[in-house]
Amino acid sequence: MEDAPKRPGKHVCLTNRKPLGITSDPEHEAFVALADEDVLAMVRGLAETELRSSFTGGAFGLDEQAVNAAIRRMKAAGLISSRRDGDDHVYFLNGPRFRDLVRFLERCAGEGRAASRP
Q1: What is the pTM of this model?
Q2: In a domain, 33, yes or no
Q3: Count of domains in the chain?
Q4: Largest CB tally within 10 Å, which of 9, 23, 40, 43?
Q5: Does residue 20 lie in a domain region?
Q6: SS3 sequence, the chain?
């Protein structure tokens, strides 16, 4: 008996996602992303409200192409999360990631550690 030809899987990934890499310097990745004006505009907007796809009219003062590029950079830096709602993606800030950045900045500012005296 011949083997039946394999049928392709039903799942087709349309987002061209790559596995998230583990980085040795997550703060650097976040600050590089935040240095981008479009990413910063998205952060400011997402701090106020979630964003639902699609972005045909753009969002937060950015055109559709800039929004998509900023989302890719934000995802790579772990600054944004999303959930499915029907056919749409709903994007929102990754709160734990921003709290990690706040703790990092507090350590840099000397908060949370004993001051050394000469």
Answers
A1: 0.72
A2: yes
A3: 1
A4: 43
A5: no
A6: CCCCCCCCCCCCCCCCCCCCCCCCCHHHHHHHHHCCHHHHHHHHHHCCCCEECCCCCCECCECHHHHHHHHHHHHHCCCEEEEEECCEEEEEECHHHHHHHHHHHHHHCCCCCCCCCC
On whether residue 16 sits in a domain, the answer given is: no
Residue 4: pLDDT above 60? no
Neighbours of 56 (CB within 10 A): 9
Q: Name residues whose C-beta falls within 8 Å of residue 14's C-beta, 6 or more positions apart in sequence.
A: none
pLDDT digit string (tens) for 15-71?
A: 444 445 556 788 999 999 999 999 999 999 999 999 998 888 899 999 999 999 999
Domain that holds residue 70: 26-108
pLDDT for the residue numbered 21? 52
User: Residue 54 falls within a domain, yes or no?
Assistant: yes
